[in-house]
Amino acid sequence: MFKKILIVEDHEVRNLGVINALTELHIDHYDFVSYCDEALQKIKTADAEKKSYDLLITDLSFDKDQFQQNIKSGQELIREIRNIHPKLKIIAFSIENKPKIIDDLFKILSIDGFVSKGRNDAKELRNTIKKVFNGEKVIPQEILNSIRNTPSNISENDESLLNLLAKGFTQSEIEQHFKQNKIAPNSKSAIEKRLNEIREIFSAKNNIELIVICKDLGII
Q1: Residue partners of 141: CB distance under 8 A and separation at least 6
Q2: Contact assessment for residue 72 and residue 63, using Cβ atoms and an 8 Å cutoff
Q3: Which of 18, 76, 136, 153 is the most buried (most CB within 10 A)?
């Protein structure tokens, strides 16, 4: 089982569930921090002292307070850690439920497990820790089902188009933005055609419904 764990969580009440999970696994060497900057420094210090952590459990979102932080999210923290620790086991422990965001955690940031905060999350965390220790990738079935049902033929250009649409850009303004940023195709007719195609992909009746669907999925 894991010998040394770092937990990054800024809500003390959540720490109780984590402690219960670790206690039941007979893990007694763990540290808690509330800030991502502090977490990164702790990992670097532990490495320098040859007392490295072998598991990171981190939330994804953190409340802002009076202390200025360079790393503001769990995703940013994981990205920084992956630069120095490509093989460190990482579990995200979060209320996040958008399939695209969670899918990117696995595909882009190579996390090892995801646990949704909520009812029975201590039990789920305990089971996930055990499976990750045994070399498994762990993602909740309901999230996995949502990812499988999310269309995969949405490109980065499509995401740019949808983000601009969500910000209230007209098709003429989107055309101008695309041309200025050398995004092709960028004619107004091509943009209109692609919007029609994307609406059909998501079975959206109009652009407003399309934006709502894409936000729910975490595409934008």
Answers
A1: none
A2: no
A3: 18
Its pTM stands at: 0.75
Q: Cβ(59)–Cβ(23) under 8 Å?
A: no
**DSSP output for 201-218:** HHT-SSHHHHHHHHHHHT
Rounded distance between C-alpha atoms, residue 73 and residue 79, angstroms:
10
Q: Please state whether 128 falls in left (phi above 0), alpha (psi between -120 and 50) or beta.
A: alpha
> Angle between the 156-166 and 207-217 helix axes, to the nearest 10 degrees?
120
β-partners of residue 8 are 33, 58
pLDDT in tens, 44-97: 999 999 999 999 999 998 878 778 889 989 999 999 999 999 999 999 999 888
Q: What gap in Å lies between CA 203 and CA 155, rounded to an integer? A: 18
